[in-house]
């Protein structure tokens, strides 16, 4: 078909030089696909190199501790991906003797692997004719064929998967999948694509109908919740501090943080002082409380906006099992706390 011929020709002339495109090793392809979920290539690339250096095989990743994995993942976000990655590595190493499943359907049984990731591994590693359908593919196909189906609906995913399968050359599905994703990432971009230089500008229905900016259609709105975090940085007589692990389900599961006072709104010194003295640290002698005002940030997650304030609490006593500044940097933290520590704003 003319569509896939033009698309693949464009790809061969314009594709980026990415390390996971130089291998059919399912371990490396799996790593890259998990890392690139909801993550830009430029952000994910250093992590891919770090992981393949630290954990060159699935056995190395399986034998690592969860804290090692989370520390190396620090800053990439969506930490459930890292935890699932680690659990799946253990399963493949122990139960499958290091051998990845070799079909789309079998890959779906792996923890953290959905239809998109399974299709990517199956086509890139094993040349199985199964299409990948991600945001890039939705955008390219909806514009080219003027499809107004709501991409937030499961039925639309099936519609686009069927269409992509029909367009795909069955003897070389891997290059087609790479090409259509790359085309969406580089040429048919979400905002202000340069349609005048597009190889499909003579046949794209959205361009002909002046609907490029209106497609794809996505009705689902993400509801954003505002949360207010006050991190309390204890500093004892030895200059040590205290941290805790987030064990509850939700954001940052199994990462570390300073003692947390969560409130319903931004609070002032008087509120924090009373909470610290009366409840949270009533067993300590409080020498001083100071807001690290320059460290106040709004940290935006997909469904939550975190309004974060940091407070330094000086105490007279010595913290049992206190953590010194050098030890502090070895723990896996959410990136917003890690950046605070790196800037040494713990000193305020």
UniProtKB/TrEMBL annotation:
Q: Which GO terms describe its molecular function?
A: 4 iron, 4 sulfur cluster binding; 8-oxo-7,8-dihydroguanine DNA N-glycosylase activity; adenine/guanine mispair binding; metal ion binding; oxidized purine DNA binding; purine-specific mismatch base pair DNA N-glycosylase activity
Q: Which family does it belong to?
A: Belongs to the Nth/MutY family.
Q: What is this protein called?
A: Adenine DNA glycosylase
Give the matching Pfam families.
Answer: HHH (PF00633), HhH-GPD (PF00730), NUDIX_4 (PF14815)
Required co-factors: [4Fe-4S] cluster
Q: Could you tell me which NCBIfam families the record lists for this protein?
A: mutY
BP GO annotations:
base-excision repair; mismatch repair
Output the InterPro entries linked to this UniProt entry.
A/G_AdeGlyc_MutY, DNA_glycosylase, HhH-GPD_domain, HhH_base_excis_C, HhH_motif, MIG/MutY, MutY_C, NUDIX_hydrolase-like_dom_sf
What sections of the sequence does the record tag as coiled-coil? none
Q: Where is the HhH-GPD domain?
A: 35-186
Please name the PANTHER family in this protein's record. ADENINE DNA GLYCOSYLASE (PTHR42944:SF1)
Q: Which reaction is catalysed here?
A: Hydrolyzes free adenine bases from 7,8-dihydro-8-oxoguanine:adenine mismatched double-stranded DNA, leaving an apurinic site
Note on how the cofactor is bound: Binds 1 [4Fe-4S] cluster.
What does the UniProt function comment say about this protein?
Answer: Adenine glycosylase active on G-A mispairs. MutY also corrects error-prone DNA synthesis past GO lesions which are due to the oxidatively damaged form of guanine: 7,8-dihydro-8-oxoguanine (8-oxo-dGTP).
Protein EC: 3.2.2.31
| Keyword flag Metal-binding | yes
Instruction: Please name the top-level EC class of this enzyme.
Output: hydrolase
Keyword annotations from UniProtKB, A to Z: 4Fe-4S, DNA damage, DNA repair, Glycosidase, Hydrolase, Iron, Iron-sulfur, Metal-binding
